[in-house]
Amino acid sequence: MQTFLFVAGLVLFLLGLLTGLANPAVKNPRMGVASHLQGMTNGPFLIVVGLLWPHIHLSHLWQLVTVVLLAFGTYANWLATQLAAVWGAGRRFAPGAAGDHVASSGRERIVDVLLAALAPAMIVATILLIVGVLR
What whole-number distance in Å separates Cα of residue 123 and Cα of residue 14? Predict the structure, then answer.
């Protein structure tokens, strides 16, 4: 699990770097900066969780659930904001970053579902990490 968290964090960090380079080419650069920041912050977050992992005392099943939720939440955050940048979407959950940009209803729905799903995933994963550290 620890190695997976390290690799997932480094890959997400790399995606954040590449997203920053690609920002001038997206439809909504403000949302592109948001995507860049998601990769630049969530990648190191996964690495820190990997460093913390030896101190997490959960059953194997709960460890797996925690890692899956963390991976989903962090990557969904990067992907949702990147898609919103490319498509000009994100009005519902990120109106400040979306500005006047509007995408098709299907594209908006994809971004909305990703953004709505990642929040509970990250909250539950963080609670599991806290429980695992306190055990």
Answer: 24
Whose CA is closest to 78, among 125, 116, 114, 102? 114
What pLDDT band is residue 91 in, cutting at 50, 70 and 90?
A: low
Helices (H), the chain: 2-22, 29-52, 60-87, 95-98, 105-134
Q: Could you tell me if 74 and 125 are in contact, meaning their C-beta atoms sit under 8 angstroms apart?
A: no
Structure-token pair, residue 124? 């539950």
CA distance 96 to 51: 34
Query: What is the DSSP secondary structure assignment for residue 25, as one 8-state letter?
Result: G
Look up the pTM and report it.
0.92
Domains of the chain: which residue ranges?
2-134
How many whole angstroms separate alpha carbon 103 and alpha carbon 129?
36
Q: What is the pLDDT of residues 2-57, one digit of tens each?
A: 999 999 999 999 999 999 999 999 999 999 999 999 999 999 999 999 999 999 99
